[in-house]
Amino acid sequence: MLHPQRSLSELPKMSAASQVERAVLEEEFNWLLKEEVHAVLKQLQEILKEASRRFSMSTPGLESQLKQENFILGSST
């Protein structure tokens, strides 16, 4: 529900157009949660994994387990 504070008793007071709009918005919201949120969270997880792999901070005792990548900054001028 988009408006959990509204009770079911208020629904008859809403115009038919408002009820249809609310139903459409709720359907779009549910689709967004089902289809898009998980995909975006998966992408973020992969980005964070890659960033942690590339830019790992050294921790005492773990140096031998981590392979650090070095980057050289250059200029074209």
3D structure, described in words:
There is one protein chain. The protein is mostly helical and 77 residues long. Helices cover 51% and strands 0% of the residues. It contains 1 helix and no strands. The chain has one helix spanning 16-54. The longest helix has 39 residues, at 16-54. The chain starts with 15 loop residues before the first helix and ends in a 23-residue tail after the last helix.
Short description:
It is found in: Cytoplasmic vesicle, Secretory vesicle, Synaptic vesicle. The chain is mainly α. It has one helix at residues 16-54.
- Mean pLDDT score: 77
* End-to-end CA span: 57 Å
Shape: elongated
Could you estimate the helical fraction of the residues in percent?
Answer: 40-55%
- Uncertain parts: none
Q: Mind describing the biggest β-sheet?
A: none
Task: Give me the count of strands.
Answer: 0
List the helices and strands and how they pair.
Blueprint (H helix, E strand, L loop, with lengths): L15 H39 L23
Protein name: Protein rogdi homolog
Subcellular location: Cytoplasmic vesicle, Secretory vesicle, Synaptic vesicle
Family: Belongs to the rogdi family.
Short descriptors:
single chain, 77 residues, mainly alpha, 1 helix, 0% strand, RAVE2/Rogdi, Protein rogdi homolog
